[in-house]
TrEMBL record:
Protein name: ATP phosphoribosyltransferase regulatory subunit
Keywords: Amino-acid biosynthesis, Cytoplasm, Glycosyltransferase, Histidine biosynthesis, Transferase
Top-level division of the source organism's lineage: Bacteria
One of the record's GO molecular function terms: glycosyltransferase activity
Oligomeric and partner information: Heteromultimer composed of HisG and HisZ subunits.
Domain Class II Histidinyl-tRNA synthetase (HisRS)-like catalytic core: 11-317
Gene that specifies this protein: hisZ
Subcellular location per the Swiss-Prot or TrEMBL entry: Cytoplasm
Pfam families: tRNA-synt_His (PF13393)
Species for this entry: Sheuella amnicola
Pathway: Amino-acid biosynthesis; L-histidine biosynthesis; L-histidine from 5-phospho-alpha-D-ribose 1-diphosphate: step 1/9
Length: 391
């Protein structure tokens, strides 16, 4: 029995105060999403692996834990991300003709932690827009993501934007680059300039102009002036020009937040197709919110649709916030007899219906709570139970 209280590595219990803070955030964000017209869906935690990994790329496969279904003998996956599931619901179950806005919240499990400080279990919440290819959908998703951080109490954040179409154009213009796409994306995410330079050698070496363009991307980071620099340094491929035009238009519409351009902040090759973004805030070691456009992922479910969205981990968000203050509560005793108990229960019920927290303290109990502080108590006065301030 020794050590039976230990949890697997990178997993942790959530204790009362933090659990309440997470739940308050969950409720607040889902209510916010609803005001934008997003409808809540709840896909299952486990699915057949071929459905769960559709369109997700190599990274999602590595993050997904697998098991065998005892009923069918087929391989199941415990979801590591909910976006593909929501895409399946839009494409295969709802099958609507127009724009569909869906939101979700649920646990996801990573086979390995994403970083040294990361948990393997996340509480993912997000919002997705299906059916509109225009920049209007990208702007709505970005603005909702920013408003989500403000609801959590973060009023100074930084938004970094990129465009997956830009890198895709560079890769598709070089047949050797297409065979090393995943490697290139990893090098760009790490801003590994020596590694990018090495792409010019080896069996599948890239064209010199492709390597030069890829080498420029990690250095194209900063304010809106980066776009003008990119136009000078990158080849004038149609996809590159279109991506820079879109980013320029996006920046002109986002004038109420600190925005940066990071042309090496790429997503997953073959998954993201347009504008991608990350939201950073002081107190978190990496991106707090991530999102972007992923058109046509639903094709594998029988229906290609424009799509854009974002997600964040509520446990991660809550972990960087100030501790929640204890909530004021009313302390109630246990009645001495049946008649007294009836009146006491009626009084407690009325207070709870009014939204008050009423905790009945049992005989001999030393009430200890992390979430509550007793600033009032129920006392009997002239046959009635009344609330008095605790001195």
């Amino acid at each position: 029995m020794k050590g039976n209280w230990l949890l697997p590595e990178s997993l942790a219990d959530i204790l009362p105060t933090e659990a309440r803070r997470i739940e308050d955030l969950r409720r607040g964000l889902l209510d916010l999403f609803r005001t934008y017209g997003f409808e809540l869906v709840a896909p299952p935690l486990v699915e057949y692996i071929d459905s769960l990994l559709t369109g997700g790329g190599t990274d999602l496969n590595l993050r997904t834990s697998k098991l065998v279904d005892q009923l069918s003998g087929r391989t199941l996956g415990i979801r590591a991300d909910m976006t593909t599931q929501v895409t399946r619901i839009d494409a295969h179950l709802l099958n609507r003709a127009g724009v569909t806005r869906l939101c979700y919240c649920g646990p996801v499990l990573h086979a390995r932690p994403a970083g040294l400080l990361s948990s393997r279990e996340l509480l993912q919440i997000g919002a997705e827009i299906f059916g509109h290819a225009g920049i209007e959908a990208d702007l709505e998703i970005i603005r909702l993501a920013l408003e989500s951080t403000r609801l959590a109490g973060l009023h100074t954040v930084r938004l970094d934007v990129c465009h997956a179409g830009l890198v895709r154009s560079l890769i598709e213009a070089d047949s050797a680059a297409a065979t090393r796409a995943d490697e290139i994306m990893a090098l760009l995410r790490d801003k590994d300039l020596p590694g990018i330079a090495d792409l010019a050698s080896g069996e599948y070496k890239l064209k010199s102009e492709t390597v030069a363009a890829l080498s420029a991307l990690p250095l194209l980071y900063g304010d809106a002036s980066v776009i003008a620099s990119a136009r000078k340094q990158l080849p004038p491929l149609p996809g590159v020009t279109s991506a820079l035009d879109t980013l320029e238009k996006l920046l002109s519409a986002l004038d109420d937040v600190s925005v940066g351009v990071d042309l090496a902040d790429v997503g997953t090759y073959g998954y993201h197709s347009g504008v991608t973004f990350s939201v950073y805030a002081e107190g978190w070691h990496d991106a707090l919110v991530q999102g972007g456009r992923y058109d046509n992922v639903g094709r594998a479910f029988g229906r290609a649709r424009p799509a854009t969205g974002f997600s964040l981990d509520l446990r991660k968000l809550a972990g960087g916030l100030m501790p929640a203050a204890p909530a004021p509560a009313i302390r109630a005793p246990v009645a001495a007899d049946f008649a007294q108990d009836v009146r006491l229960r009626q009084a407690m019920h009325a207070l709870r219906q009014a939204g008050e927290i009423v905790v009945q303290v049992f005989p001999g109990e030393q009430a200890t709570h992390d979430e509550f502080v007793f600033d009032r108590e129920l006392v009997e006065s002239h046959g009635q139970w009344v609330v008095q301030v605790v001195s």
